[in-house]
Amino acid sequence: MDKFWKKLSPGANHVERKSIESSVTVPDVPSFQSLIDAADSGSFDMHEFERACGIPNRMLLPKGKKDGMEFSLFLAVTDGSHDLTHPDVESEHGGTHAHCGAHGEVYPDKRPMGFPLDRRIPDRRVFDETTNIKFTHVKVYHDERKFTVVGA
Questions:
Q1: Where does the Hemocyanin C-terminal domain lie (predicted)?
Q2: Quick check: 84 and 77 in contact, CB under 8 A?
Q3: N or C: which end of the chain has fewer CB within 10 A?
């Protein structure tokens, strides 16, 4: 779903990430009318649409249901200092690096694309017995006024 750098402290950490910050999403393609309006107003700026590789921001999470829709969530935390291939940890390398690679650059980490789900997992115990991996079930609720994910 996403892959990003975040410095964590020992103990509990609160991590919040918006879909527009994701390393796998891109903005929706603008409509023809919005392009015409931008050109007419003189504010024609297409820099955020330079990369077309990725999924639309609005599709990162499923819509869910009013009474909740169950999904499995997998989280892996790794030591980024061992995986680093470049000096700028904060750089997202063009936005959609986790989904599409980094065009013309070294991939931002030493792990294969899709790691750690880039191979067959033979047994649920791999998830349960590995201290830096969490596998749980969550519910995604659809509310016309807000978006909520509830789980572990």
A1: 1-142
A2: no
A3: C
List, for residues 44-97, the tens digit of each pLDDT value.
777 777 766 788 888 888 888 989 999 998 888 888 777 777 666 555 444 555
Locate tokens 């639309």: which residue? 56
What pTM value is reported for the model? Answer: 0.66
87 upstream amide cis, omega within 30 of 0: no
Q: Name the one residue in this structure whose structure tokens are 């929706």.
A: 28
Class level of CATH domain 19-151: mainly beta
The strand order across the sheet containing 147-151 reads 69-76, 133-142, 147-151
Q: What is the CA radius of gyration of the chain?
A: 18
